[in-house]
Write a structure and sequence with these properties.
This protein is of the alpha+beta class and 489 residues long. The protein is built from ten helices and 25 strands. It starts with a strand and ends with a strand.
């Protein structure tokens, strides 16, 4: 079972829909929310409607608790309280009843989830420093704990010495004799100096945790705040220039944990197991499953449809392995030298069609005289992909991946540059799909938009693969696809 664990969406629709698209592209089985669906952001209705239909398990956050009357709003500062009052006017009674059912913690197989710390989850105490995590480890037995609340991603670890310490976000496997507390960061209100949405993936089968950092549309979020009449959070990520140091985390916290038991959250479920949570929170899915079963029965009777469905995807061509040469300025990827017909092999590249009847890739000469891949899709739900061969690497290497995109006027959906990798993890290899995701954002001459990403390889990296991915309707041209190896710092 693979879980996507998200936290602190805070009514940020732009961040949440981008993260949800990333989760779906990775084919995650279950989604867990660690609380604070609302607060600060301008789109509580859109976010709540989406998480209700997409998220499998929920934990109550302090903003959620205050919204539904389970926590005293005077514990929040004036700015946060104003947004909570505004949010209550936007949502209905059905939402309030839904939020009231959320427990303070979730107990899974070898892991546990809460919004803040685990000793008194109804107090929503923050875990800033390694010593703050000790009370949680003393209160519960699981070796792996997931939380949010501070909006600052990181890992707290304690071993046989009993001395806790903190690590910056990095992929890891559970180890015997060690316990971990993972703060997954924030989807909608990051406070670590990085404006990207942060969340984690937990692979329960391999007992491994993987990190995801996803960029979202900051300008659209800023515009939505203005249209709702809400001011951006003081000291928040919209004010944070990436070139400047982030403000101290304690100085921008907007909630004071209660010191008395009577101030803590009231009438909330203390712990709920994941096995029973789905049936209690999402009973409407029973009707959806019944409808799906009926539909499946109809489809079984239609042999023609299933034959079409089985042969919808197609792979064209073959991508050869690539060797990294000593010249760091050389593009490692093959460059098309001649035009090609629609859905015919292109030397050095693998074409994957999610719907071969409504998608295609060809090489055409642009108005400027450059050769470019022309990607055509009439099915925005099927992924269209152009993949390079595998590049053998070492973990201390640094690379720069880049491509230029130009979209047709009727383009709808997303197209992006991605880098996947294979890394050693103990005695086995682990595939990390789209380790790097970069959407085109930098405008260039002639209507082209550039996507460029410099990245280091994680420990154990063995090979990488560059791809152009798309889920869209319309046409996008892609040129100047390159991968360069840079000297390590």
């Amino acid at each position: 079972m693979r879980y996507a664990i998200v936290s602190d969406i805070h009514a940020n629709w732009q961040a949440w829909k981008t993260v949800l698209l990333d989760i779906r592209s990775l084919k995650i089985e279950r989604i867990i929310s660690l609380g604070d669906l609302v607060g600060y952001g301008p789109n509580p209705c859109e976010v709540l409607e989406s998480v209700y239909s997409s998220v499998d398990h929920f934990v109550l956050g302090n903003h959620d608790a205050a919204l539904c009357g389970k926590l005293d709003s005077t514990l929040f500062n004036d700015e946060a309280r104003i947004v909570l009052d505004w949010t209550r006017q936007q949502v209905g009674s059905t939402v309030m009843e839904f939020v009231k059912t959320m427990p303070l913690s979730l107990a899974g197989d070898s892991f546990r989830c809460a919004h803040g710390e685990f000793a008194e989850p109804g107090h929503f105490n923050y875990v800033f420093e390694p010593d703050d995590a000790l009370r949680s480890w003393e209160a519960v037995e699981e070796p792996l704990l997931f939380n949010g609340h501070t909006h600052c991603p990181g890992i707290f670890l304690v071993g046989s010495s009993g001395r806790p310490y903190r690590l910056d976000p990095e992929d890891f496997e559970l180890q015997p004799g060690k316990r971990f507390m993972v703060n997954v960061g924030s989807v909608g209100n990051p406070r670590d100096g990085d404006t990207r949405a942060s969340y984690c993936i937990y692979d329960a089968r391999h007992r491994s945790v993987f990190w995801r950092k996803i960029p979202f549309d900051l300008d659209a979020y800023r515009l939505a705040l203005g249209e709702a009449g809400l001011p951006p959070e003081k000291g928040g990520f919209l004010e944070r220039d990436p070139r400047l140091a982030a403000p101290p985390l304690r100085s921008i916290i907007n909630f004071v944990p209660p010191v008395k038991n009577e101030q803590a959250v009231r009438d909330a479920v203390e712990v709920q197991t994941i096995r029973s949570l789905k049936g209690k929170l999402l009973r409407w899915q029973i009707f959806a499953l019944a409808a799906a079963a009926l539909l499946a029965a109809v489809l079984v009777l239609s042999g023609i449809y299933w034959h079409w469905q089985a042969h919808r995807e197609a792979d064209i061509g073959r991508a050869a392995a690539i060797t990294v040469a000593g010249d760091s300025a050389r593009n490692l990827l093959p460059v098309p030298e001649v035009t090609s017909e629609l859905n015919t092999p292109v030397s050095g590249w693998l074409i994957h069609l999610g719907d071969r009847r409504r998608q295609g890739i060809e090489v055409r000469r642009e108005e400027e005289g450059d050769l470019a891949f022309r990607m055509i899709s009439g099915n925005p739900r099927a992924e269209l992909r152009l993949s390079s061969g595998t590049v053998a690497v070492k973990e201390d290497m640094k690379f720069v991946a880049e491509a230029s995109f130009r979209k047709s006027d009727d383009f709808e959906g997303s197209a992006w540059l991605g880098v996947s990798l294979v890394k050693s993890s103990g005695a086995k290899d682990v595939d990390v799909k789209q380790y790097v995701v970069k959407e085109p954002a930098q405008a260039r001459r002639g209507g082209w938009i550039s996507a460029k990403k410099t990245f280091d390889l994680p420990k154990g990296a063995r090979s990488i693969e560059v791809g152009i991915y798309g889920r869209f309707k319309g046409i996008v041209s892609v040129k100047d696809i390159s991968l360069e190896c840079k000297p390590a710092d």
